[in-house]
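Thread: Newbie trying to understand structure tokens

Hi all, I'm a second-year student working on a class project, and my supervisor (Dr. K.) asked me to get a predicted structure for one chain before our next meeting. I've only ever worked with sequences, so writing a 3D structure as a token string is new to me. If someone could post the tokens and maybe explain what I'm looking at, I'd be very grateful. Here's the chain:
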Amino acid sequence: MSTECSAPPLTFQAVGGREIVARFDAGQMSTEGGLLLLGELDQRLGVTQRFAQCFHDYRDPSRIAHSLETLLAQRVYAMAAGYEDVTDHEALRTDPLLAVLCGATDVAAPLAGKSTVSRLEAGTAAAAPTARYKKIVADPAAIDAFLLDEFVRATAAPPAEIILDVDTTDDPVHGQQEGRFFHAYYGGYCLLALYIFCGEHLLLSQLLPGDTDQRTAVLPPLQRIVARLRQQWPRTRFIVRADSGFLADAIMTWCEQHHVDYVLGLAQNARLTRLAEKSLRKAARVCAQTGETARVFQDLTYRTRRSWRRRRRVVVKAEHMAQGANPRFVVTSLPRRDHAARWVYEDLYCQRGDMENRIKEQQLDLFADRTSTTALASNQLRLYFSSVAYLLLQAFRRTVLATTELATAQCGTIRLKLLKIAARIRVTVRKVWVSLPTGYPYADLFARVHAAVLRL
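---
Reply by user tm_fold:
Sure, no problem. This is what the structure looks like when written as tokens:
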């Protein structure tokens, strides 16, 4: 018969004449009380359920302790809650609230540990049917289609216009990961993460070797995305927006042949500066007269000597500041008669900067750059897990936080204010009782968000 031993109390310095004594005797507790909201939203939207359909499970059903959906929900919810690596699951596996939200049949039984989650990430299609342990395999093509389908589901009416923001970012590595190369622009060994967004909606997250030419890599997924969305919304207008890193004749030619507009950054060169010289002098005069930054916009028809097959419209922003001239150029397919040069640059091209906030959300708040496994395929799967966590939090923000003070909050702020809540768990035959702290400062907001989730 086991004995019950009481842990010795932990004493701290007295405050106001009162001794502070702490004990580990609160019972079953969780720090993720707010995940109740995210789990309820997921149940109603079915995001992780559809995500699970993108995997092949070759395990023997009679020997399964954790279903595929439970494993995926555990990994995605943990990322949303701020746990970045598989080693975190060794402690998380005993969290009773996470077990409830992941759909575990026995709340008292532990969830998957770090070894099981690691095998989930490391499965390969070639070895899975005969492998002893790594029997769950992701289908990358299915996950890419899933991301697009989630965007379609989230869009109620056919949009008149879709702007596809394209960008890459570095994913620094500190080991011998497959695909690592030294990248001169980023100044270190890295992989490249290619993203395509439409507003806040994530359409593509693809991990590339560090030596990839992003101009070549972006065209196949761009073609696939436009084809899929045009099939859904044949009358929608498409615009591709990107910086000068994606300026390539092949991209522009494909867009022109498939009735897709574009606005792309164009790197400064001596010929362009000469063509913009008159506008630059005018901006310099205005700056000298007013003492303030001056901008003059100009339209050019321009063609490179060898790399472009035709002449194209170039918009010039001839800017002069106290520090000197600061010209910028973009090339676009938008006609002059309908879109003035200032509008193309300021109101269209410059708005692409918001995409960088979305990438930062994924990297800083959802650990998209935690790609420390050896193989490129398993690191890609980690990026997918981060992307699905982003999908959930973005859906949370879009559907139930839109009328609250967190309508434009980033994922890290949503986690801090709504997800990281202490909770005491008590399991009975018929119910799971979750007690939240009476001193929680956002209790009213929590109740309003809960009501909004139930209305979905």
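A couple of things are worth pointing out once you decode it. The chain has 17 helices and 17 strands. The first helix runs from residue 35 to 45. Feel free to ask follow-ups in this thread.
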